[in-house]
Amino acid sequence: QSGRLPPEAAVITIDDGWHGTFRVMLPILRELRLPATLYCDTAHLEWGRPIPHVMVTYLKRCAPAPTPPAAEALYSAATDLSITLTDRLTAVRAYAAACSIDLKPYLENRAFDYMTPQELRIARLNGLDVQLHTHRHSLHDFTWREIQCEIEDNRAALGQLLGSGTFAHFCYPSGEHRLEAREMLAKLGVKSATTLRPGLCRKSGQDVMRLPRLIDGSHQSDLEFEADLAGI
C-alpha cells in the first residue's frame, strides 16, 4: 500500500499448519534467514490426529488396482466433511485394511498430522508469523454469521495456543473467496486476505483483500515454478 517494497520483493506464505512444515520447512527457513507467514486453521491442529480426507486421498493413489468395491464406500465416508473427524478416521483405517495398506509408517512420521500446540509455539519463536485461516478450514456459505464465527473462533484459538499476538492477516481456505466477503472481513479487523488466484502482486492498484499467489507444489515442476516467479 505504501509503494515502498524493494525490487522483486517476495513473501513466503504457507497454509494450514502441517507437521511437515515444522519438521522440514522451518529448519530450511531458519538456515536461510527467510521470514514466512503461516495461515493456520486451528480445529485440525487441536484435533491432534491425522487429517482423514487428506490421508485417504493420498492412500487411494497408493492402493492396488482395482480397488475392492467395499473400499469405495469407505473412501466416500472418509472424504465426507459432513461427518465427524473421528468417524472419518475410522473409515480411513478400514479403507487401508481393505486395500492391504500398512498405515504404520504414515502414523509414525506424522505425514498427515498438523503441528502440536507446542510445535506451533516453537515455530513462532523461530520466526514464523502465524495468521488467520479460519477455525474449521471453511467459510461455509459466506454469510456474515459464518464468516464472523470462523474468524473469531480462529483468532481466539490462536490467542489461546500462542498466548499473545496480533492476528489481522487472512488466507481464504481452499482458495474459495467472494467479493462480498471483503467488507465483512474488514469489519472483523482483517487487513489483508490472500487467495489461490495465480499471479504477481502489483505495487499500485492491488486489492489487498484479494491478493494473488504463486503456488509451489507437486502439481508442477521446479522449472515451471521458477518461470512463474520470473513473470513468464
List keywords for this structure.
alpha/beta, 44% helix, 3-stranded parallel β-sheet, 232 residues
Description:
- This protein has 232 residues and is of the alpha/beta class.
- The protein has helices at 19-32, 42-47, 52-62, 69-78, 85-98, 104-108, 117-125, 144-162, 181-187, 222-229, and strands at residues 13-16, 36-40, 128-132, 169-171, 192-198, 211-213.
- The strands form two sheets. The chain has a three-stranded parallel sheet.
- Helix 3 runs parallel beside helix 5 and helix 4 runs antiparallel to helix 5.
- It is globular, with a radius of gyration of 19 Å.
- The two termini are 24 Å apart.
- The model has no long low-confidence stretch (mean pLDDT 93).
Q: What would you say about this model in short?
A:
Helix content is 44%, strand content 12%. By secondary structure, the protein is α/β, with parallel strands linked by helices. Helix 3 runs parallel beside helix 5 and helix 4 runs antiparallel to helix 5.
Structural class: alpha/beta
* Unreliable runs: none
Major β-sheet profile: 3 strands, parallel
Computed Rg = 19 Å
Mean pLDDT, nearest integer? 93
Query: How many individual helices?
Result: 10
Distance between the termini: 24 Å
Strand order of the largest sheet: 1-2-3
Order of helices and strands: EHEHHHHHHEHEHEEH
Would you report the number of β strands? 6
Helix content: 40-55%
